[in-house]
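Translate sequence into structure tokens.
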Amino acid sequence: MTNDLAFNAAKKNYFKKLEQYVPIVAKVHGGNHPEFHEVRKLFDTIILKTKEAGSDKPELNEEFAKLREITDNYTVPGDVCESFEAVYSMLAEIDKAYHT
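Result follows.
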């Protein structure tokens, strides 16, 4: 599978769910995990750049690098709900697909 196909498949599979989950997780866990607010900003940037790119592959290397840094490579904290875990899992899959 080429990079574009892998990323497009991940985008199709996860973006809609993430657009629902990310704001809720930020609201619920942002107090104890302020880094998640930065995750939300980066996700919003990824969505925007992807929409602006249309059918082309967007330039997201910087955003994914920052996400990996902020999340310690998508390591889920021990005191969060399944939705938080799902967000990190989906972001990790999109990151992997983008770089495949």
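Note: The chain has a mean pLDDT of 94.
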